[in-house]
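Handover notes (outgoing to incoming on-call)

Open items:
1. Bacterial alpha-L-rhamnosidase N-terminal domain-containing protein: sequence verified, structure written out, both below. Nothing else pending on this one.
2. Nothing else urgent.
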Amino acid sequence: MRTKLGFFAIMICVLNSCTQLKIAVDDLRCEYLTNPLGIDVDHPHFSWKIAAEERSIYQQAYRIVVSDKQSEIQAKSGDCWDSGWIKSDYTVNLKYEGAPLAGNHTYYWRVCAVINGQEVWSKPSVFHTGLFDETDWKAQWVGVKEEIIHQSLLFRKPFSIEKKIKEAYIYVTAAGFYELYLNGQKVDDDVLNPAITDYRKTVLYSAYDVTGLLKKGENAFGVMLGNAAYNMYIFPDRYGWGDSNPLGTPRFLLQMNVVFDDGSETTVTSGEGWKYTMGPITYN
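Bacterial alpha-L-rhamnosidase N-terminal domain-containing protein C-alpha cells:
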C-alpha cells in the first residue's frame, strides 16, 4: 500500500512539473515591436502574451524590471525600473515609469507574471533608444546647390576606425528617398525610405545596428538619393499631386555613434567632406 501511494505521489509531482512547463510569458514587445532600435519616446510601453496549452489560464499580477545591464536582468532585478508587484490581468500598453532613459542607449527588460498562482518569468528582451532631442543630432544636412530634376545623386565619405568596436548605431533620414551603404554593403533591405511626410513639419528617421559592418582601418559611407515628393515636378505621364512645386533638391542627414571596448566614443556625421557625383539612375 505504501509503495502504491509513493508511486502515485511521484506521478502527481511529475504531472505538475510538466504542467508548469507548458505555461510561458513570451512575445515581449516594446512600443509594439520586438527588440526595437531607435525608440524615441522617453516612456515606452511594454506588452507580452501568456502562452499555455491548458484552458482557464489567467494572469493575476505582474512585475516588470528594466536595466541597462544584462546581468541585472538575468538576476531578475532592475536598477532603472522595478515596477514591483501589480495586481492586474493587463498585458498590453504598460507604461515605463522608471528613471529617465538616455538617448542612443541599450536597455534590457523582462516580466514576471503570476499565472494561476505560479510565478513565471519571461526570457530577457531588449530595446535601444534613438535620439530624443534635436540637440542630440550633431550632423548637418547634405545636398547640392545645382538643380536636380531626374537624376539620382551618389555621396561618399571615407573614415577610419582605429580601436576595437563594442557597438555602433546609425541614425539617418532624407528629404527625398535614400539608400545607405557601409563599406559597399546596403545596411538594410528597405526601399523608399523614409516614408513620405509633410517635409515642412516632420521628417522620419531610421536607426540601424552596424557593429558588424565596420572594420578596423579604412571604412566608407555611400548614400544614394532620390527625389520622392520633396523634389517633384509635373511632367506628362508622371504621377504628381497638387501643383507639385518642388521643395528643393534632395538632401540627407546621417549620424553614427560608435562606442569602443575601452569605453571611449566617437561620432561620424554628415557635413563637411562628403563628395558626390550623378548616380546610375537617370529618371526618378
